[in-house]
Specification:
The chain has two domains: 2-157, no CATH class; 163-299, no CATH class. The protein has helices at 2-26, 31-56, 64-87, 97-131, 136-157, 163-166, 196-205, 218-225, 227-241, 276-284, and strands spanning 167-172, 174-177, 181-184, 187-192, 207-213, 257-259, 264-269. The radius of gyration is 24 Å and the shape is elongated. By secondary structure, it is α+β, with helices and mostly antiparallel strands. It contains ten helices and seven strands. The mean pLDDT is 85. Helix content is 57%, strand content 12%.
């Protein structure tokens, strides 16, 4: 029991580490958050490992601990949400409520994955020893392998789609009309840039980005046009590539705008380093937030530019 319990905990923590690697690519974290998540992973893994022998011994009252754990994990979600909300005012580009909720939900769900993987690992051990009468060593080895495989399967299953899955990202020109009206690609009227020095910075450091829904699909268009999704794209650019602006220069804040001609989104963005490839990859890797899905379902048979899909 002691060995399989330890193996279950290790597999649960390993599951969290695998998902933490994925999480850091989409939701940048800090060292103190890393420690918190590992401690919670240990607790969740221990609960999952203990659940199997409790069920075998028909100690059903011990299952009530799961409800307490679920409540604790929900509290973690609320704490993370409150922390990120408090930091919003200090950001040059805000995350937005949709992205904050997505991050908070992610922190909660990952703990449940630890419970599942450790429960599955210990369950496999008991199944193999009781049904197939194998030795303890072989049973531990097989259950460990199955647990690791499950960890990667869970990572695959909960992988979030990104902008690159539903849209093409192109680089377009930044220019000005009537001396001060910002134009990105074919869309004019983005904003009025009155100072000549600011217009020069846009032309020198700025990158024009156009996000075009794939297959001229209205469902894809509705996702990238969602206000929460737009803000998520803007914040992802800022968090990964920086922003060439000071606190008193709001004109340089990236503001995604809709182009009604092709239902695309255009952004005038000033990265600290003008690396075109990095800008494209950052936009493509931006996660799709849950609140942006499920809209314009009635238009699934229609394509942009035509009344009816064929």
């Amino acid at each position: 029991m002691d060995k399989v319990f330890l193996i279950g905990i290790i597999i649960g923590i390993l599951t969290r580490l695998i998902m933490l690697n994925l999480e850091q690519k989409q939701y940048p974290t800090q060292p103190n958050v890393l420690i918190t998540q590992l401690v919670l992973a240990f607790i969740a893994s221990a609960l999952g490992a203990l659940l199997v022998p409790a069920l075998i011994e028909r100690s059903y009252t011990s299952i009530t601990f799961l409800s307490l754990a679920a409540e604790q994990f929900r509290q973690v979600r609320e704490n993370r949400r409150d922390t990120l909300t408090e930091l919003e005012a200090k950001q040059l580009v805000q995350r937005g409520n949709a992205f904050i909720e997505e991050i908070a939900k992610t922190y909660e769900v990952r703990n449940y994955m630890c419970i599942i993987s450790s429960f599955f690992t210990v369950g496999c051990y008991y199944l193999i020893t009781s049904e197939f009468k194998m030795s303890q060593g072989i049973s531990l080895l097989i259950s460990t392998i199955f647990g690791i495989i499950l960890a990667f399967i869970l990572k695959r299953l909960i992988r979030r789609d990104s902008i690159g899955d539903i849209a093409d990202v192109n680089i377009v020109d930044i220019s000005f009309e009537n001396d001060s009206i910002l134009k990105v690609g074919s869309l004019s009227g983005i904003t009025n840039v009155g100072l000549k020095s600011e217009r020069e910075k846009f032309l020198k450091y700025g990158v024009g980005i156009e996000i075009v829904p794939k297959d001229n699909n209205y469902i894809n268009a509705s996702i990238i046009q969602d206000p929460g999704q737009r803000q998520t794209i803007a914040y992802t650019l800022y968090s990964r590539l920086g922003l060439y602006r000071q606190k008193n220069e709001p004109v340089f804040t990236p503001i995604p705008r809709r182009n009604p001609k092709n239902e695309s989104i255009v952004i005038a963005y000033l990265p600290i380093e003008k690396n075109i490839d990095a800008v494209i990859q950052t936009v493509k890797s931006t996660p799709i937030v849950s609140s942006a899905r499920g809209k314009n379902i009635s238009l699934k048979n229609y394509v942009i530019g035509r009344k009816e899909g064929k």
